[in-house]
Write a structure and sequence with these properties.
Helix content is 39%, strand content 21%. The protein is of the alpha/beta class. It folds into two domains: 151 residues, P-loop containing nucleotide triphosphate hydrolases (Rossmann fold, 3-Layer(aba) Sandwich), CATH 3.40.50; 79 residues, no CATH class. A six-stranded mixed beta sheet has the order 6-7-8-3-9-10, sandwiched between helices. It has a four-stranded antiparallel beta sheet with strand order 2-1-4-5, with helices on one face. α3 runs parallel beside α6.
């Protein structure tokens, strides 16, 4: 079976620093794959190369049979690659609804001139985009927030809105860069539930970069581990937890399941079976 996303020997250097070195892995249609590793391992750089914000110095990236290596982010987005960021990248002075409508821009066919000449077509297109956005609002349970200004929302809800903007484009594959960073336990449980439902109910492939090992080990189908810009392990969460290289590089030589759970800093775990919608 051909993978939906193929990353082959990609490398990236910034100012003489080897951020990523010949990284190779595949992501299959419908998978939920997590990419983990210590700070500075190169995880975000890999997501940036997939989505076109950085271009690999070496190697190739193929999405659904199309070589997207070096393409502009806008062109990659039109192929069905969605993205969220470590630092929230919303328009803080705009409403939740307006931010989500901006997520539909890759599907908008009528420009300003066309809108002036064909008002009926433009209205029909706007109604359809609004319907999609309302479905996302309902899915993420943010109906009361649609008219709220994003900058006035709590951090956890802003993260949810950013997820909504990515989902509004109906991506085939969703790249999530630390979607639970800075959240409390309750907010993380909500976000984990939404990520699982996007994968299960929508059938969207998910590539997740996340430092919360409780979340990663509970919801991932497969885990790719990076260290110092290279992949050092790949497999199921159970396999990865037992890998000596991972234990040494990521956990500082400590072993045992309690160590993984404790990386969250709370001792609480998010169980994939209870994170799903009731």
């Amino acid at each position: 079976m051909t993978a939906q996303l193929e990353i082959r020997h990609v490398s990236k250097v910034f100012g003489g620093v080897q951020a990523v070195n010949r990284v190779t892995f595949d992501v299959n249609q419908g998978e939920l794959v997590s990419v983990i590793g210590p700070n500075g391992a190169g995880k975000t750089t890999v997501l940036n190369m997939i989505s076109g914000f950085h271009h690999p110095d070496l190697g190739s990236i193929v999405f659904e049979g199309t070589d997207i290596t070096g393409r502009a982010p806008s062109r990659i987005a039109t192929l069905g690659v969605g993205r969220t960021f470590q630092n929230i990248a919303l328009f803080r002075g705009m409403t939740v609804l307006d931010n989500l409508m901006l997520g539909r821009h890759v599907h908008m066919k009528t420009g300003v001139l066309a809108g002036m000449l064909y008002a009926g077509r433009t209205r029909r297109e706007e109604v359809e985009h609004r319907r999609v956005v309302e479905d996302v609002i309902d899915f993420l349970e943010i109906e009361p927030l649609r008219k709220r200004v994003v900058g006035a929302l709590p951090f956890g809800l802003q993260k949810r809105v950013e997820l909504g903007r990515a989902l509004a484009a109906h991506p085939k594959i969703l790249l999530l860069d630390e979607p639970m960073g800075g959240m409390n336990v309750e907010e993380k449980e909500d976000m984990a539930r939404f990520v699982l439902d996007v994968n299960d109910e929508w059938g969207t492939t998910v590539v997740l970069v996340e430092h919360d090992m409780g979340v990663v080990m509970d919801i991932s189908q497969r885990v790719v581990v990076m260290d110092l810009g290279e992949t050092i392990a790949e497999g199921t969460p159970v396999d990865v937890k037992a890998n000596p290289l991972v234990i040494k590089a990521y956990l500082g030589g400590k072993t045992g399941a309690k160590t993984w759970a404790g990386r969250r800093g709370t001792g609480d775990r998010i169980d994939a079976s209870t994170a799903r919608r009731a």
